Amino acid sequence: MESKRQQKYAKLIQKELGDIFQKESRHLVGKAMITITRVMMSPDLSVAKVYLSFLLADPQSTYELINEHKKEVRHHLAKRIGKSVRIIPELAFFPDESASYAQHMDKVISGLNIPPAPQEEEEEDD
Question: How many angstroms separate the CA atoms of 58 and 107, rounded?
Fold first, then answer.
């Protein structure tokens, strides 16, 4: 379980990375919309695991492009939060598969053949 301090840093990084992808890294992502779904901090706050969700783009190629420009994204992050944190964390990006997993599970559940429950007769006691 994350400490309050880890959660505070995770929120800060999530907000700032969202702004970076929306404003400063347009040349990297183009028209793609990138959502930071979750950030998890290591206990020493030196590594941030960032989970990304993609819209209007090929997830795999966009993910690879972001991974190639990780240093540039970290540099933008350092400019924004450098005065308020001691260490700028290393960024580890991961694609967030929860939306596609949810769609898959909906498809599986809707495809199940579940027979209706048998009707129970109610007996009246007078």
Answer: 22
